[in-house]
Amino acid sequence: MIKVNGEQHPWRQGLNVTKLLAEKNYVFHAIIVRINEKFIPPEEYDAALISDGDSVETIHLITGG
To answer: Distance between CA 59 and CA 34 in Å, rounded?
Structure first.
């Protein structure tokens, strides 16, 4: 299991940031992702593997007026 924004989420071998965002239906254009408090740049989402027990935080940036 991993934690995503403080909630339990099933872990599986080969899980990366791109796959996790798709599983969670996080399709926001402006999103910040951290794994164990380490910032992951968008260009590294495919390569950023998530390990069993990791803590993932997502922050959705929104603008308004």
So the answer is: 9
